[in-house]
UniProtKB/TrEMBL annotation, chain A:
One of its GO terms (cellular component) is membrane. It is a multi-pass membrane protein. It holds the Pfam family Spore_permease. Its main location: membrane. It comes from Paenibacillus pinisoli. This is Spore gernimation protein.
Automatic annotation (TrEMBL), chain B:
The keyword Nucleotide-binding does not apply. One of its GO terms (biological process) is spore germination. Signal peptide: none annotated. Pfam families: GerA. It comes from Paenibacillus pinisoli. GO terms for cellular component: membrane. InterPro entries: Spore_Ger (IPR004995), UPF0353/GerABKA_families (IPR050768). This is Spore germination protein.
UniProtKB/TrEMBL annotation, chain C:
It is found in: Membrane. Pfam families: Spore_GerAC, Spore_GerAC_N. It comes from Paenibacillus pinisoli. The lineage of its organism: Bacteria, Bacillati, Bacillota, Bacilli, Bacillales. It is a lipid-anchor. This is Ger(X)C family spore germination protein. Keywords: Germination, Lipoprotein, Membrane, Palmitate, Signal. It comes from the Bacteria. Gene3D superfamilies: Nutrient germinant receptor protein C, domain 1, Nutrient germinant receptor protein C, domain 3. Residues 23-189 form the Spore germination protein N-terminal domain.
Length: 362, 493, 398
């Protein structure tokens, strides 16, 4: 059985939730209040995640996907359930597209994207064959490492003398309006709503139980991490540059300069991003193959791995012609699309209500 | 020594007859053209004939011994002249058992095995069984300091080729009945003795059973070194990483036995296998526990740095100089660039060339006789390196990188693990040359995934770091004070 | 179990098959150490880059005192920076990389026309670093690149070292862009000129005696250069912006017999706090500067053993500081009407609703009208190795 421990789940979800915000920034539309927007999104996101958790708790023994046919009946539940692997695949394709856009334009100019993505997908495929257990262990090892590197970078940025806390003020300069604008729905869906894919992992946690507590902890940690990073980026750049930069966090790493010796660490920033994207893609594809396996009643997930990897590869390669189109879709269109909103927010709520009522009745 | 029945023996008659000549003929037929088998016929007082059969050179048998032996048998026979053979057996047993291990065998094939194992067989006329005396004493070298694992502080005895000596070296450190040694033999032709050592109550039952099962499963013609056993019992033999620990040091074996591991001692080799082997265990030396713990912890950290740099240093050099110039501080970049100016090769070829040359030098140093070997490495490292830089074939920063990598790879306490990292350095360099840091990251991920997937006898290779067992980290990332470590060893009993 | 090996093999084969697309060997790059942008007669940009000649640097590192110039200055004209760069690229066989560009020098003419179009390249380009310093110079920027280096291997490094010491207000590309975008603060950049090393007045006899020096700062409104501020005013800006590293302050103390003595103080720290007040249409700023320093030169007759004398000196220094700050602010308000100190920014922080409603768009007109009150406090934290003034001892002997 492919299991992970609670500690590993924590590591996986923290990395997963921080995810690609490490380079794209989070809620940068809110200007200098973006860290506040992050905290608010975290609180709302926490509520959403608790909905997912309670759905799986109300249907013990079933993966999240299987709850739909069980609660909504075969004819309504199965189609809804089938939407999920498709959604997961789509988002996985989005992340692969991130790699497709970022890596060639920053650290490997001139290298054809397909070759970069092929390498990426090979590693993803290999990890999918090894399974969740190995990935849990990987996250467990990498998280402390990332933490140490991150702390080092914070120290380096501060000692570079570029941080000016005055840039964080005045607070709520333009009022709550622009904060709300990024919180709903983008802020809630990004990172937190996307934790839906993690719901496919929860049933593999051994020893069982206390998934909710782990998720709360990871969400809070990830949220405060993002908020802190945002605040730091603002205090380095000021609001205007922060809003203008394509990759605010990437620029943040570029600002490091210690004793003229440690400079231009931007390539390491991209490496961070690649690792984060790696884990996120893994979780999405894993959730996708698990869902497909559950829905087709197949014995093993192995036969689905290669097709799913190929689909994600093709999606990632063809999805967006350039980074602006890509980010526009991710920030302006996707969060408002009914499929996203309903699958991530509304239907789970209905599912929770139905499960709860049925349980009461039983 | 309980021999395994060698089932596929060719001799038709397994039983011995009462007639000495028949028996002798049978033995002579089996030992046909075995020049090292010696026969010594003798005659006892009451016209009782007998023959000694033994291997020359394997036992401490000389004229005096043999005469004494004959006298001893004779006197037992006199005392018990009227008694039945059973009594004679007992009498001889009691007389001779004082000086050597004796046994009676009426099985022909078993006797042949024992003679080949170095025991002295005494054939007596009128007896259907043979008296076997264990006078085995192989000529071995004395106990010396292990050549591959020397320490500054710590015991200086090392294993040698004789299994019983090796066992005694372990027993000397663990005077407890909990130390169990189970004997096996393996190898169709070599019939090598293998001992499985563990501490009862500390090592897990399932682990012991698994080791016994795997050792019992070994099917091979001959075992010349414990490396054969290692490859036949490890979990994943296509991995570059060693999954068992191999050591020449008794104190290291005992230390691991105390941690609940199982040792496999193979005859005719000083290298003892300890299972399960984990990555971090392979990075520890016994000296870590003998030195003051602050120093030992610092050395462990140094070792981790060495592990990373022996794997990544050349590939980072390639990646940074060919893809990510901006990450090199300007002044350093200028000095690297100016020394590279005359180098005709791309950085990758240059690095590959030097690394291969370095590995070659190292191998040459091992193979050559010791006094010459040192000369080779000095000539290689200093003269060739200098000349190559002066001729502008390689750049001096690269030479520094290669030497630093070399030094780092000498820091591995486990030679096998060092080998794995030396090997992996090359794919790493290829990855760096094609995709820069991105390639390094992807290959590293792949390696990490592989290492995390590996298991050795049910124990994950990267434990206790992952899956995390926080309590054990104090003996992995650094070396805690004994006062703090004793807590866990107490609970183990 | 064979899978990992197979995967690894395919990975390796793929890697070797695909070759190395973006690989650039160090032998094939030309490292830009400094670049200069000017506006040419025909309205085109003239980009000049200072490139290291690798062959020569080897000579330098070996014998230390090669007099030959290790850098090569190339220039070209173009409608955009990128186009000019492309022309330069065709002149040399190596790929030009900007990732180690130390400084960007802008000529006065271009600066007065507006910098934004020119520095867009440097904030957008993949290789360019935001840490490069932005310098302005009176006259041709390209001239500065031709001055031979006296201490470092190349002049780019020298300029950067001077900027880093922050004896005058320095600005990196990032700082400049930040202040360009941020409301209520205007950008500045250091002014660097070729100056004679020995004699500040007379003409230098030989070429070797020329060096690069920071002489003041350029004051901008938006991205357009308005004018210059001299050394002492620029130092004053550093105090006001809390960016002083070290500085020297000299004050004349009138003596009893009409022979003014002078006191020179090494400033150790300067901390400035602002308080803004809006009363009706009036905006008032209270600027409180706290400074500490060490007395290093005293040519007055005052003995600093006496507490009174020390207080007197401190008081005189405070007056001097207040004077200089007031003069600087006045000059900004009247001559340039550009808020490079960031009063608007402070007002925004302290009165955000008023700012958003009234001043955000009108700050340019409002700034000259604001009322700035300065209050300085100065504390000695050291008086050097002697207590008594040497001058006074001489007097006593008479």
């Amino acid at each position: 059985m492919d299991t992970i421990s609670r500690h590993q789940l924590l590591a996986v979800s923290i990395i997963y939730q921080i995810g690609t915000t490490i380079i794209f920034g989070f809620a940068s539309g809110a200007g200098r209040d973006s860290w506040l927007a992050v905290l608010i999104s975290t609180m709302l996101g926490l509520a959403i995640i608790m909905v997912y958790v309670s759905v799986t708790q109300l249907n013990p023994g079933l993966t999240y996907i299987e709850c739909y046919p069980k609660q909504f009946g075969k004819w309504l539940g199965t189609p809804i359930a089938w939407l999920h692997p498709l959604l997961f695949l789509y988002i996985a394709g989005r992340i692969v597209a991130d790699i497709n856009n970022l890596v060639p334009s920053t650290i490997l100019p001139g290298t054809p994207p397909w070759s970069i993505l092929t390498i990426f997908m090979i590693v993803i495929g290999y990890s999918l064959f090894l399974g969740l257990k190995v990935m849990g262990r990987l996250a467990e090892i990498i998280l402390p490492l990332l933490g140490i590197i991150y702390i080092a970078e914070v120290v380096l940025i501060i000692s570079s003398g570029v941080v000016d806390l005055d840039n964080l003020f005045p607070l709520l300069d333009k009022g709550w309006n622009r904060v709300w604008k990024v919180v709903w729905p983008l802020g809630v869906i990004q990172s937190y709503g996307e934790s839906l894919a993690l719901a496919m992992v929860w049933t593999s946690v051994r020893p069982k139980g206390r998934v909710g507590r782990t998720m709360v902890l990871s969400t809070l940690l990830a949220g405060s991490f993002i908020a802190f990073t945002d605040a730091m980026a603002i205090s380095v750049f000021g609001e205007e540059i922060f809003k203008r930069a394509t990759y605010p966090m990437y620029a943040l790493i570029q600002a490091i300069n210690v004793a003229d010796f440690i400079t231009q660490l931007d390539a390491t920033g991209v490496l961070y991003f690649c690792f984060m994207a790696f884990l996120k893609t893994f979780i999405y594809l894993y959730a996708a193959v698990r869902s497909i396996q559950k829905l087709t009643y197949a014995q093993s997930i192995r036969s689905f791995i290669i097709p799913v990897c190929v689909i994600a590869f093709v999606l990632g390669l063809t999805m967006a012609p350039n980074v602006i189109a890509h980010i526009t879709v991710v920030e302006k269109i996707v969060p408002y699309s009914p499929i996203y909103l309903s699958l991530m927010i509304f239907i789970p709520m209905v599912l929770m209500a139905v499960s709860w009522l049925r349980r009461k009745a039983a | 020594m309980a021999p395994n029945g060698q089932g596929d023996s060719t001799a038709g008659n397994d039983k011995l007859s009462a007639d000495l000549d028949t028996n002798l003929k049978q033995f002579q037929a089996v030992f046909d053209k075995c020049g090292d088998i010696q026969y010594r016929p003798f005659e006892l007082n009451e016209a009782l004939l007998g023959t000694f059969i033994f291997l020359s050179g394997l036992g401490n048998i000389n004229a005096v011994n043999m005469d004494l032996l004959r006298n001893a048998i004779e006197s037992s026979l006199i005392e018990q002249s009227e008694a039945l053979t059973e009594d004679i057996k007992a009498a001889i047993h009691s007389k001779l058992g004082f000086t050597s291990q004796t046994s009676w065998s009426d099985d022909f094939q078993a006797s042949v095995d024992k003679i080949l194992a170095g025991e002295l067989a005494v054939l007596l006329d009128g007896f259907t069984s043979i008296l076997l005396l264990n006078v085995k004493e192989l000529d071995t070298r004395s106990i010396e300091e292990p050549a591959t694992e020397s320490v500054i502080r710590g015991p200086r005895d090392g294993f040698q080729e004789n299994i019983s000596t090796n066992i005694s070296l372990i027993r000397r450190r663990l005077k407890t009945t909990q130390l169990k040694l189970e004997m096996f033999t393996a190898g169709k032709l070599s019939v090598t003795d293998i001992a499985i050592a563990y501490l009862e109550g500390i090592a897990e039952e399932s682990l012991i059973a698994e080791v016994k099962e795997r050792v019992g499963r070994i099917k091979i013609d001959a075992i010349l070194e414990s490396g054969y056993v290692e490859e036949l019992i490890e979990d994943n033999s296509v991995s570059p990483f060693p999954q068992v620990m191999v050591t020449e040091r008794p104190d290291k074996v005992v230390g691991n036995l105390l941690e609940g591991k199982v040792a496999i001692i193979v005859d005719n080799t000083p290298f003892v296998i300890v299972v399960p082997g984990t990555f971090f265990q392979l990075l520890q030396t016994p000296e870590d526990y003998y030195q003051r713990y602050f120093v030992a912890s610092a050395i462990r950290i140094l070792r981790f740095i060495a592990v990373v740099s022996s794997l990544l240093l050349p590939s980072l050099y390639i990646a940074l100089t060919t893809y990510h110039h901006e990450m090199i501080p300007t002044m350093l970049l200028i000095s690297i660039a100016s020394s590279r100016e005359t180098v005709p090769f791309p950085a990758f070829v240059e690095a590959m060339l030097m690394e291969v040359a370095f590995e070659g030098l190292r191998e040459a140093g091992v193979r050559l006789p010791r006094p010459v070997g040192q000369g080779v490495s000095i000539v290689g490292a200093l003269v060739i390196g200098q000349a190559a830089v002066a001729a502008g074939i390689v750049s001096s920063p690269l030479l520094i990188i290669v030497s630093m990598t070399g030094i780092a790879s000498f820091l591995f306490p486990s030679f096998q693990l060092g080998l794995a990292f030396r090997l992996l350095r090359f794919p790493m360099m290829i990855a760096a040359a094609t995709f820069g840091l991105y390639g390094i990251l992807m290959l590293m991920l792949m390696l990490l995934l592989h290492m995390l997937h590996l298991q050795s006898f049910g124990v994950p290779y990267m434990s206790p770091l992952s899956p995390l067992r926080a309590g054990e980290l104090k003996d992995v990332l650094y070396r805690a004070n004994w006062l703090k470590m004793s807590k866990s060893s107490k609970s183990r009993g | 179990m064979r899978k990992p090996i197979l995967l690894l093999l395919t990975l390796l084969i793929l890697m070797t098959q695909t070759g190395c697309w973006s690989r650039i060997e160090l032998n094939d790059v030309a490292i830009v150490t400094a670049s200069a942008i000017d506006l040419a007669q025909d309205g085109k940009y003239k980009l000049s880059v200072q490139i290291l000649k690798m062959k020569m640097t080897k000579g330098i590192s070996e014998n230390g005192s090669s007099s030959e110039n290790v850098t090569l200055t190339l220039s070209a004209k173009g409608d955009t920076i990128m186009e000019a760069l492309n022309v330069i690229q065709k002149k040399i066989p190596r790929l030009i990389i900007f990732s180690h560009n130390r400084v960007i020098i802008v000529g006065e003419k271009l600066a007065r026309e507006g910098l934004a179009p020119a520095i867009d390249f440097f904030s957008r380009h993949r290789e360019a670093r935001g840490n490069s310093y932005l310098l302005t110079t009176r006259g041709e920027a390209a001239e500065l690149l031709k001055v031979p280096a006296n201490f470092e291997i190349f002049t780019g490094e020298e300029m950067r070292e001077e900027e880093k010491a922050r004896l005058l207000d320095s600005a990196s590309i990032r700082d400049f862009i930040y202040r360009l975008f941020e409301k209520g603060i205007e950008p500045t950049s250091s002014q660097m000129q070729v100056i004679p090393l020995s004699d500040p007045n007379g003409k230098p006899a030989k070429e070797e005696e020329m060096g690069l020096g920071l002489v003041g700062v350029g004051i901008y409104r938006k991205d357009k250069l308005l004018g210059w501020m001299n050394r002492s005013e620029a130092e004053c800006l550093l105090w006001l912006r809390n960016r002083m590293k070290s500085s020297v302050l000299t004050v004349a103390i009138p003596g009893k017999d009409r022979q003014p003595g002078r006191v020179s103080v090494q400033l150790i720290s300067a901390k400035t706090k602002y308080k803004s007040k809006i009363t009706g249409e009036n905006i008032q700023f209270e600027v409180a500067i706290k400074m500490t320093g060490e007395l290093f030169e005293n040519s007055t007759k005052l003995s600093i053993k006496e507490m009174n004398n020390l207080n007197f000196l401190q008081h005189a220094l405070e007056k001097e500081i207040e004077n200089r700050v007031n003069m600087t602010v006045k000059k900004l308000q009247t001559q340039y009407k550009s808020d490079v100190i960031g009063f608007g920014n402070i007002l925004h922080r302290q009165h955000k609703s008023d700012w958003n409603k009234k001043y955000a768009t009108l700050w340019e007109e409002e700034f000259p009208k604001i009322d700035v009150k300065t209050k300085a406090t100065f504390k000695f934290i050291g008086t050097g190795r002697v207590n008594e003034s040497l001058v006074e001892e001489e007097e006593l002997e008479k």
